[in-house]
Amino acid sequence: MKESETLELKKSTSELKEAIVSIVAILNKHQKGELYFGVGRDGAISGQTVTENTLREVSRAISEHIEPKIFPKIEEVIIERKSCVRVEFTGNNVPYYAYGRAYIRVGDEDRQSSAKEIERFILNTKRDKIRWDKEISEKAKFEDISVEKLKWFLKEADREYLSVENSFDKLGLLRDGKLLNTAVILFCKSP
Questions:
Q1: Is the pLDDT reported for residue 125 higher than 80?
Q2: Beta-strand relationship, 82-90 and 73-79
Q3: How far apart are CA 9 and CA 24, in angstroms?
Q4: How is the beta sheet containing 101-106 ordered, strand by strand?
Q5: Which residues contact 141 (CB under 8 A, 6 or more apart)?
Q6: Mind listing the domains of the chain with CATH numbers?
């Protein structure tokens, strides 16, 4: 075992605060990773006393100090006949914060993120959610669609028309069965 951009090793749960920072740094870069307690940075297995309380303590620390919340898999594993704690985590709500600060993984180290990096995280991950054209139209209904406009467009694009809903689904103009603003602007009888 060797530390990487998605794997963090801690000798024991006495390094829990540093572990929280590492989890956040890995999530902000890769959205998933693993962390082991009971394994040194050099990969030497030292083991860790693991009780139900140990697992609860790790779970509580993650819950209380990482925002937005994540729900990792925390379990005891036996490596080279020694007990260790394995934490497997995932999350797509970038940026994540540990103790109120954002971090990013660089190689096998955790670096505090700058304000510019946090802004970039937010814009990159929320891009589709903040664009007007990707929002669900509040008022439009399928009856408002000009089937003639849609058929003409599909013919020009060399695509087949089966139904309004099927066509919009294939064009990516629906979300949860509802029309996006793009569909309204392009294909409504009176946009």
A1: no
A2: antiparallel
A3: 14
A4: 66-67, 97-98, 101-106, 109-112
A5: 179
A6: 7-126 (3.30.950.30), 134-187 (no CATH)
